[in-house]
Amino acid sequence: METLATALVSGALAGLMVDISLFPIDTVKTRLQSEVGFQKAGGFRGIYSGLGAVAVGSAPGAAFFFLSYETSKKQLSYKLGKNSATNHMISSSLAELVACFVRVPSEVIKQRSQAQRLSSLQILKKTLALEGFLGLYRGYTSTILREIPFSVIQFPLWELLKIKWTDKGTIQPWKSAVAGAIAGSVAAFLTTPLDVAKTRIMLSEKSAPASGNFLTVLSNVYKDQGVKGLWAGVVPRVMWIAIGGFVFLGVYDGAKHYLTAACSKRPTKDINDV
After folding, report:
1. What residues form DSSP beta bridges with 170?
2. pTM of this prediction?
3. Is the Cβ–Cβ distance between 184 and 242 less than 8 Å?
4. Which one, of 69, 146, 53, 148, lies nearest residue 102 by Cα?
5. I need a surface site. Which of 8, 83, 242, 266 has the fewest CB within 10 A?
């Protein structure tokens, strides 16, 4: 139980810290990928639009991700092995499915706030009025189609680098952070076209041209803007996720190490004292 609680708390701290600290870079990336273009989507103005949605959604989303990831990894280790890449791929994929139920609504509100320069509350009211509750889950499928390939690349690579850099059974948090930055930047670069499609779908409202399915959106982007359009925002995306991977996974491992050590030092009751 303590292990699960540690994963939950550590994940929440990591998610909140990285999303808030790197929010401006994410805003720039979203506006570069917007169908209306960077300047019309707001340019560098209102760079913190949508921060409220992130503050509400990032902690629980990350917490549920790591809770699911650590639980699945432990269960699969009996058959696949603790350090199996297949274990890490399956565990991270299952964790994304769980986390996205929490993450997608806040992501929809955040990205629309970034592109429309309205407050998170205004976007929430507008979305519910025009599209109903399901409007908050616009782009859920495209988010899954982006996040699972991303995690399938990132987490096995992160875990592999941690194994390589482990000294006497433990790894220092800063090494885990560097491993997270490397793994995240590689995954971010390779999955940028998927991120472009996800952003277009989330920014669109009901019946808008970009509200179609994932492959249709990718096809339309390619027809309108070519290969360049599929890689729109790649620089801020890689930058954001490289720094984010350093903070996110470094804070997670650091918090987990601290909490685990704190729990192990906690005095236990002797049965005779009960």
Report:
1. 167
2. 0.78
3. yes
4. 53
5. 266
